[in-house]
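Is this the right way to post structure tokens for a design question? Let me know if I should format differently. Anyway, here goes:
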């Protein structure tokens, strides 16, 4: 179930399921030492979000991101089997074998991050080999790209990396402001919208941009939807009960119909 880019009024809410050691967890600002475990059955968590209206899930293999290869395959396969919605997965996908392996688990989309910065030619080749199946994850700290599970800081800006990749047949670009992630501090709307605007200018067509990091309130969701973004990923706010998923989906739908 791929993202339907023809429907410009559709703003997807992606509940995040972060996997570590087979558990569903959340980290603060990507710090593995600041982990909260929210469940021992990620497939049950996936069913819960779908029962509340989710039509797409955002999965992250935290062990994979750190080790450089997919690790939580069993949990991912259980999630895919448990729900009848699209899933996208990032974390540790660093070569073509990994891409094919993860897509073979039944996810709709793989998210490439670290390798896109280190080897953009390879990443472009993956996008062209698996058109519409690859999303680019751009994780930024103070505007600069961070890689290797956010452990390494780059000199390249998020915008420069996005523009370099704008012409590829990407499913989406997922922009995460690490400073906001897991902090319940609100998303970096300005940076995300600016990224989407400059991408559209450069490529002559809208590139789906999904916001990630810090989405906490219905007003956050409304701001992102009004700005015309393709979607937003929500994690800790859902798990801690600060945001109701069904309400967030309703607000996204309403505001996207009346963009600013």
């Amino acid at each position: 179930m791929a993202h339907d880019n023809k429907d410009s009024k559709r703003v997807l809410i992606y509940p995040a399921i972060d996997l570590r050691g087979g558990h569903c967890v959340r980290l603060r600002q990507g710090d593995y030492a600041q982990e909260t475990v929210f469940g021992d059955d990620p497939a049950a968590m996936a069913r819960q979000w779908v029962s509340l209206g989710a039509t797409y899930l955002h999965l992250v293999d935290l062990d994979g991101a750190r080790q450089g290869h997919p690790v939580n395959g069993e949990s991912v396969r259980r999630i895919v089997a448990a729900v009848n919605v699209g899933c996208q997965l990032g974390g540790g996908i660093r070569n073509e074998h990994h891409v094919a392996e993860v897509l073979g688990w039944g996810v709709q989309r793989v998210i490439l991050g670290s390798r896109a910065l280190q080897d953009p030619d390879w990443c472009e080749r993956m996008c062209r080999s698996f058109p519409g199946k690859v999303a680019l994850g751009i994780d930024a700290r103070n505007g600069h790209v961070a890689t290797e599970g956010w452990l390494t800081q780059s000199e390249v800006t998020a915008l420069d990396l996005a523009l370099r990749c704008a012409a590829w047949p990407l499913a989406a670009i997922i922009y995460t402001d690490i400073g906001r992630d897991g902090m319940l501090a609100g998303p970096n709307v300005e940076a995300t919208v600016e990224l989407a605007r400059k991408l559209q200018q450069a490529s002559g067509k809208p590139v789906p941009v999904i916001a990630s990091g810090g989405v906490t309130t219905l007003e956050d969701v409304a701001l992102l939807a009004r700005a015309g973004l393709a979607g937003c990923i929500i994690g800790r706010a859902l798990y801690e009960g600060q945001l109701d998923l069904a309400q967030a989906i309703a607000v996204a739908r309403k505001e996207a119909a009346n963009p600013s």
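Format looks fine. Someone answered above. Worth noting: The radius of gyration is 16 Å. The chain has a mean pLDDT of 88.
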